[in-house]
Structure formats: C-alpha cells, structure tokens
Fold each of these.
Amino acid sequence: MSFSSGTDANGNTFFTIDINKFYSSTPEGLSTASEFVLNYEASFTGNDIFTLSEAPNFLSVTKYFSNATLRMYGLNDTKAYAGTDYVDMVMWWMDYDYGTDDLVSFAFGDKTYSGDMPTSSSADYAVKSMGFWVYEGTGYAYKGSGTLTANFQSMTLTGNILNDYVTADPFSWSQIAGASAGNIDFNGTISGSDVTGTIDWANGREGFFDASFFGPSAAEIGGSYAAYDNENAYDNHISGTFIGVK
C-alpha cells in the first residue's frame, strides 16, 4: 500500500492510494485455502473529503462507480485521536452492486528498524481502533479502544480491544445506542519489528492479525485484523485496524 499527492492542472490538490494485497487462509474444518487479491488505485481531491459530524476525528470519502460504491475513512489528527506521531490508519470498503464486498483496513507509517527494537522488559500500548462489521446483510462501521502488551523478552503480544461505538450512518457516524461490535483478544508473536498472531472475537469467533512497531525504540504500534463467525462467516465478519502509543 502506498500514498502519493500532488496538484492537478487546475491547481487542485489530490492524493492517490495504491493497494496491492494478497491473503490466503484455510478456515477450520476445510481443506482448501481461500485466497483474496486486492488491487486498487484511486485518486481523490480535497473536495471529496468530509469531516464526520458525530465522529469529528474521522474523515470520510465516498466515491460512486458504475458497479460499486467506495467508502473510505481516515483520521484528521492522529495525535488527538490516538496520541501517535509515527503511525496512521485507514479503512476502505468497496461495495459492489452484485453483492460482494471488499473490506480493507491497514496501518501505515515509519516502521521501527529491527536493530532499534527493545530486547528486554515489556510495554503497554493504549490503542484506538476502527473498522467495518457486516452482520446479516447490513454494513456497520465502528470504533473502540483497548490495551496491548508487548513482552520484548518473550517476544509476545497480548491484550484486547473493545469496539463499543457502532454506527450504520456512513455520513455522520451517529452512534447506535447499546450496540457493540464485540471484544477482541490478541495473542501474537514478535519477529523483528513485526507481529503476527490470532484473535478471538466476541467469545469464540476466530481470526488473525498482523502489526508492526513504529517510531524510535518501538514507541508506537499499528496493525490490522479480520475475523468471522465460524458458523456463518458470510453474514457475520469484521475487518479493522488499530494504532497506539506507549
């Protein structure tokens, strides 16, 4: 994934996002892997970007195509929302007219060099999240918060995030009272400045995550995750991202 920006012939500022991602997973009980390939390039001008009225730290972009609608959310101030200086996050939903969805959530920034990683002790990261939840044919967005603990001696990462702010309104993000996208428990292994592992979503639903440390001496963390209902994955699944700071 990469970002670039510039100015067009009319003097309008624009930015371009390139996404090229491949993922392969074999769900429990199946012998054949499911493979997902995401390859996008999209450009936006400043006029396409709006601040959400009921989630003012978030920015929204909506684009309409001949066969799909694209909704993308990002942050207008990572420091105000999550306290970070070196990592940011974006989530992206391509909703096709024929019923298929591509959900993409990712963190990006200035990764910690492997040689700058701590080798002892542990650190707690206060993290903020956002993502998409698809449930029984309806798409929701959500945000949440939690704590992740990195043990740099045992090279493990554990913790949880509670996504308890849910909205079905793509334009203002008004909260649905009492709704929750569920708690997520993380269990991962650190290798260099990267982390991979599994998640338990909403008490028993399985998933995976990957993350990296950002900034000097692993000052910050960011990553993405996905999970699905074991009994009904198509009608109950999430895709989210998180960033945080020590």
Amino acid sequence: MSTTRVVAIAALLVSCLVAMGAGAQDQPAAADQSKTETLEAAVRTLTAETSNQRSQLESLQTELAARDAAVKAAQADVAARDRKIQELMQQAAALPARVQQLESDLAAARASAAAEAEARRAQSDQAEAVAATAAGLDLRLQEAEAALAERDAMIERQRVELLAARNDLGADEAQIAVKDRQIAALVAAGRELVAGGEQLAAQIRQLTEQAERVSGYREAFFNRLRQAVGTNTDAVIDGERFVFPTDVAFEPGSAKLTPKARAEGLELGREIAAAAAAIPPGSDWVIRIDGHTDRQSVGGRMFRSNRGLAAARAIEVVEVLTEAGLSPERLLPASFGEFRPLQPGDTPEANRANRRIELRLDDH
C-alpha cells in the first residue's frame, strides 16, 4: 500500500470520529453501530496494511543490506582485479627482458647440445677405434694361442723323440757295456793265456758255463712264457723274441693301446712276472721292449717320425707291464721305427709284419 492511501484512510477515520462526536445525540443507535463497525473494519484494514507495509519495508531493508554487501564484494573484487592487472602489467613490462634471457639461455643450450653431440661423435669414433683395436688384439691372441699349442705339441714330440733317443742310447750303452765286459774278459783271458794255459782253460770253461746258464735260463724263461700264453693271444714267440703285432693293439697313428690290447698286456705282464721265476737269483737282466713300424709316413700330426711313434708305443707297453707288477728297473723301452723290418718291401703283408712290438730278455 502507498503512502497516499494510508493518509486518505487516516483522514477518513478522523472525519468519522468527528461526525460521530457531532451527531451522536441525533442519530439512532443502529446507525452508530454500523458506523462503528465500518470504522473498526477500516482500522483493521489500516492495521493490516500497515503491518504489510512494515514487512515490505523490512524486506526492502534486508535486500538493501544484501545489495550493499554485494556492492562491497564487487568493489573488493574490482580492487583485486586492479591489483592483478597491475601485476600483469608489471610482468608484461618485465617480459622483454625475460624473453631476451630465454633466448640467451636457448642459444647457450643449443651450443651446449652441439658440443655434446660433437663429443659423442668423437666418443663414438674412439669406441669404434677401440673395438677395432680389440678385434685385432683378439686375432693376435688367437694366433698366439695357436702358435703356443703348436709349440707345446712340438715340445711333446721332441720329448718323445728325445726319450726314444735316450732309450736307444741306453740300449746301445748296455750292449757296449756287455761287449766291454766281454772284451775285458777276453783280454784278461788272453793275458792269462800268456801267463798259463791251465788258467785260460779254466776261465774258458767258466765262460762257457756262464753262457750255458744264460742260454739255459733264457730258454727256460721263454718256454715257461710260451706255455703260459698258449694260443690265447695274437702275440707269437719266435726263438728268444716275443712279437706283438701293433695292428691289433693300436689304432693307426696312435700310441694308445686299445681296451682289448691293454687287457691282454696286463695278462701278459702277469705271465712274464711268473716266468721270471726261472731266472737265477742275482742275475742282472732286463726285458727290452722294442717299437717297430713300417716305412709309411706318420703324417706329422702327432709324431714327427716313425721312430717317435714307435718310442711312444714302447713306453705305453712299459707302463702297462709296470701296472701288471713288473719292476720298472727291469723294463727298457727302445725304438727302431722303420729301420729293422722283418720283411722287405712295401706290400700290405710286409707292412703288417713290420708293425710290431718285440720283447727281448737281455743282460743288463
């Protein structure tokens, strides 16, 4: 309700009150009652409208307070935005210097990256050179290892040949010693012959008896060995030689006994040890193991010569006989290679016969 309407209602109330007061004596009570009711209704209406007006006023005051708060908030926001704009303007003012700094940093980074790339290229070139050098060193190391292996093989072959030569020398020296003793005995016998015929005759008888004893125990040795061996082996006894063909004992070009031949060698060693009981006590004797080959070349793979191969085979037989129980001091390995063939020529039969191991009973 507007203010003008409130004023009009108030004026109406006043006029009614005046009229009621002026004509209270002349009007009837019913009319007064009607007016009173009308007045009361108007008062109630005025009161209600006044109350509504107050409510609207309070609502307007509340809305005004809210708007004041919103205005203050907007003002604070504007102030904050002004400060932000000020900061942005300051940052914009500093931006050219920052851009210049960034461009300078970028140039420095590019220069550093270029230097690092160049260094990496140099390292890559150096790594390739190192790899090439390492490959060359590996190749030289392989060549050196191959040369060392070849040298070791050559040393081993030379060792075998040296051992064979020493064995040959030992056998020759033993034979020379025997001959020297025989010559010395003959010289002594000759001197005694000059001194007296009877003493010479006694010595001749003594030498004859000694030769008979030697011949006798050799014959007894081989007879007993022949009986013990029988026909259970590929070996044969020819006079005072025990001949063992190498075709059945060794692979071609090898100095390692086959398993079958090794077993036979162990059995043979035990039979030889038993046959040695026929030798008189105090006799100085050895069993000489002679290695023989044919005239075909060994090819230089493991042995430089047939003599080296024959020596290695003789040593192998000595080791087996030693394992069988024979004393090592009674075993003398020797090597003749292809130089003492049983049969001349190069036929398969001759080669087969010439490839052999011979065992002989000799005076030491």
